[in-house]
Amino acid sequence: MTEYKFKFSILSLPWLLMFLVSCVYATITPRLGVVERTPTKNLNAKLARASKGRLKTFYYAQTLDHFNYRPDSYTTFQQRYMMNSKHWAGANTSSPILVYFGAEAPIDNDVENVGFLNSYAPELNALIVFIEHRYYGKSMPFGSFEEAYSNTSTLGYFNSAQALADYAEVLVSLKKNLSAESSPVIVIGGSYGGMLASWFRLKYPHIGLGALASSAPILYFEGLTPHEQYYLIATKDYKEASMNCYNTIRQSWSKIDKIASKSDGLSLLSQKFKICNPINASSELKDQLERMYTSAAQYDKPPIYPVKMICDAIDVASKRTTDILSRILAGVVAFKGNKKCYDLNQIITEADLGWRWQTCTDLVIPMGREHDNTMFPISPFILKDLTESCQAVFGVDVTPRPHWIVTEFGGHGIKNVLKKFGSNIIFSNGLRDPYSGGGVLQNISNSVVAILTTNGSHTLDLLTPSKDDPKWLVGMRASEISIVKGWIAEYYAMLRS
Amino acid sequence: MTEYKFKFSILSLPWLLMFLVSCVYATITPRLGVVERTPTKNLNAKLARASKGRLKTFYYAQTLDHFNYRPDSYTTFQQRYMMNSKHWAGANTSSPILVYFGAEAPIDNDVENVGFLNSYAPELNALIVFIEHRYYGKSMPFGSFEEAYSNTSTLGYFNSAQALADYAEVLVSLKKNLSAESSPVIVIGGSYGGMLASWFRLKYPHIGLGALASSAPILYFEGLTPHEQYYLIATKDYKEASMNCYNTIRQSWSKIDKIASKSDGLSLLSQKFKICNPINASSELKDQLERMYTSAAQYDKPPIYPVKMICDAIDVASKRTTDILSRILAGVVAFKGNKKCYDLNQIITEADLGWRWQTCTDLVIPMGREHDNTMFPISPFILKDLTESCQAVFGVDVTPRPHWIVTEFGGHGIKNVLKKFGSNIIFSNGLRDPYSGGGVLQNISNSVVAILTTNGSHTLDLLTPSKDDPKWLVGMRASEISIVKGWIAEYYAMLRS
């Protein structure tokens, strides 16, 4: 990911700093984060990267605005997609197409780490396609990131409905050009990309035969899920790892505040936590810790299991000291490595800014903590605060539309709605993933099904398989591909009849 | 309908005249025409009008652009809808809501003539809602017709995807405000409104429990239906009425051209056909005749059956004269009444212009006659001609998107696609309606069904029932409401379980 370059107008440095320093953290929706970067020493990732050599890159002249006929709407931009036809049976064979929907990041990282398609393409004789989401990576309207993100008039076209229509256009064109009109298309995505995959099956069933929606919190929208669900699950993860760990973390926030309230308190905290650039408010430290805990929970994956790693360190420290903050520091050291100092300044990537735009417009995910029922401090979701912080970043003419996703894609009574409508969707979730709180966790019908793993975390199933994978993860993927094969077989039977 | 007032910029008189005079008729998609105006002497229509007194008018502050976050997108306009709660069981009772989707006309005419909702509301204890389509009637963005239609930048928001989202927003808001969240919503529409109804069930199943799509040619789009299907069915109608009538009409075009080619030919034709303002080209007469024949076929309804009326007159005339054009004139007199002269100048209404915009943007219905297999002259559909004529009317920055509807809503292999996806849609068609050629004429699944009447025409089932209705029409409506009741019963059973 390219680092954010501070080149453009509205999003100038002072604004951004103001935003970073002053925003209530809870109003910043955590990046759903398609998949975590896999460490380069992972052999399977290297294998996946090697196969990347066989992926060819293409660009589609994408319509800027599918739902408008103003002169600007006809403008096109180059949308990047990649294909690997090594395993594909070829044109006019009705062989399947596995399509990965890019989410809130450049597609490059997914191409490296999402091994699901590569793993099953050979036995399906499938074509592999990765499509990048508009306004990320190289799929930038208006020619460049700087132009695309320069103001709300250029950013306005950046939303999930347009992205779904992009995918529809690319796939229709691609199938036609490859003489693959009768090829069944299975769409696959993780996290926000998983939402897109499930919504695509619901909105474009004539293009996507089925969807694998991994860790897709499609119910984390207005009125559907308690705001604190994300944090309740993260809390459960820590409780399960160790009650001492949970208690230590839960007690730490007031300790931090107590020290911060002293005249030299911020300096003391900066020293205690070895912070490179001394903090100006205790919230900087608390936000950083919160991010660490939630990230560890979201990506609590084998073989490391970072929640256990943090808690083990806290538990060991608890044996040698009664000082809560020393215990907390032990957790930081375990998670981040033993460093001379810890840099609290986050690098804001282009993709971070893109996701921020999305959560400031249609993807209003109301996460917050109204009650003292998690291990985190109370921090309610307040729409007004979100709006203000969005306007501080993007200008006063942007206003979140919290009702929109539920109006456009539904959610209320989803079981009743989809019991007799829709088909061929897998909602997969790892129950340690805090985002699973907004996921579909029950079977809805014969072919709209939930696959759950008790010990799984965010989008684990999509990662490149490893020989060290636990049995439940191997089994999860096997179930998924078996269901997908069933859809394809049923489709072929229908074609023949 | 307000007459078109020639007040605004691009659409100035010279352009319009150029458009009217020079356009190849085949490139102008006939108005789908929700329902024909019912003569005022019809008692049932009077009854329907009386009930109009109980309809209350409301306005919803509608989002101008649902799929964009540019500053302009947030603008709202007043969207008109009407409700009649006389039969409704009220809030918190889960009583049904019957919703009529306005199409390419002000809603007023539909409120008068669409009696289907009024007829069945009492036995269903249903709330009746009529919603007007954006850019028609009083639901005009930018404050007025003149502003809304002044250029492509203001017209750009005028398309079917935005209209569907409008209906979604109105219904979500309305159900909430009425404490009717659990009320099943049945959406009903005719012609283009029928397309909208079926698409709504497919795209917004969480809002619409089921759809009655009357005479909805959702398959009359690119690559789905032969271009001449509309004209083939009209031809069949005339053949069935009388082979002599069909032959007379079929032979008449060359007769007209032959006379027109003479030095005083156009004058002769004007006299012969009693045209008020002499014609400047034979196409003016031929277009007018074609419009008469197709309109008679589309609205070939009891008790008059205009196709038979025209053909009877032609057949009677055929006994007294061998002159083809005298026979044709007899048909005109029968259809239009015996007038001193016939005015060929069409009044262009606001709604006509709205429909023209829609067929110039997303609703590209490729109607034309490539072969000499109808009773009409050859007149192929040529996209380039359509584009040119659209640009002549609306400006060079509008370009039809012929692929869009099929990408957005599907159509290819609809039976396979919807066999295992979607539910609760009735596609009703009268097989004399030329637009039935683009309709869904076969059952797709248990609950996505086709209801056909051999002698029916365009959107007959939606009209206010009359005691003179033929049995097949009474039966058609009874089948429809019986199916709708089944959906509602099934929904209630699901609510209870």
Automatic annotation (TrEMBL), chains A, B:
Which Pfam families does UniProt cross-reference here? Answer: Peptidase_S28
SUPFAM superfamilies, alphabetized: alpha/beta-Hydrolases (SSF53474)
**Alphabetized GO MF terms:** dipeptidyl-peptidase activity; serine-type exopeptidase activity
For biological process, the GO terms are: proteolysis
Q: Which Gene3D superfamilies match?
A: alpha/beta hydrolase (3.40.50.1820), Serine carboxypeptidase S28, SKS domain (1.20.120.980)
* Signal peptide, first to last residue: 1-26
Keywords tagged on the record: Glycoprotein, Hydrolase, Protease, Signal
Q: Which domain of life is it from?
A: Eukaryota
**Similarity comment: family membership:** Belongs to the peptidase S28 family.
Question: What is the protein named?
Answer: Lysosomal Pro-X carboxypeptidase
Recite the lineage of the species. Eukaryota, Viridiplantae, Streptophyta, Embryophyta, Tracheophyta
